[in-house]
Amino acid sequence: MNDVARVAGLLERGVPFDAVFGLNDALALGAMHDLLVCGVKAPQDVAVAGFDDIDEARFASPSLTTVSPGMDEIAERSVGLLIDRVNGLEAREDGVQSEAGFDLKIRDSAP
């Protein structure tokens, strides 16, 4: 069962909820569509948000609130690590942890 079907299943079973957060925007958009098909309005009845800020998020109706990850920072750090490897630096056995900024893009689906 996919995540969108789970939203419909919650609605069918009468499980009360007032928000949905998709692990990515595609899942959030699918959930928003499923809510609409079931007669549930976003954001009036259920707030919907996603993660990754794909272009479709801005153009959905209602537009999707989303978390926009710091892709420039992620790309810069990734390329730096790749260059280190190309230059012969050994990979760390315990891996590398790095943090990047993010922006919350508040749009119509969850104002």
Note the main attributes of this structure.
111 residues, Rossmann fold, 4-stranded mixed β-sheet, 15% strand, alpha/beta, elongated
Description:
There is one protein chain. The protein contains four helices and four strands. It is an alpha/beta fold and 111 residues long. The chain has a domain of 67 residues: Rossmann fold. It has a four-stranded mixed sheet with strand order 1-2-3-4, with helices on one face.
Flag low-confidence runs. Answer: none
Strand content: 15-25%
CATH class of the domain at 3-69: Alpha Beta
The biggest sheet amounts to:
4 strands, mixed
Question: What's a quick, concise take on this entry?
Answer:
By secondary structure, this protein is of the alpha/beta class. It is built from four helices and four strands, in the order αβαβαβαβ. It has a four-stranded mixed sheet, with helices on one face.
Topology summary:
Elements: H1 3-13, E1 19-21, H2 25-37, E2 47-51, H3 55-59, E3 65-69, H4 71-86, E4 102-105
Parallel strand pairs: 1-2, 2-3
Antiparallel strand pairs: 3-4
Helix pairs in contact: 1-2
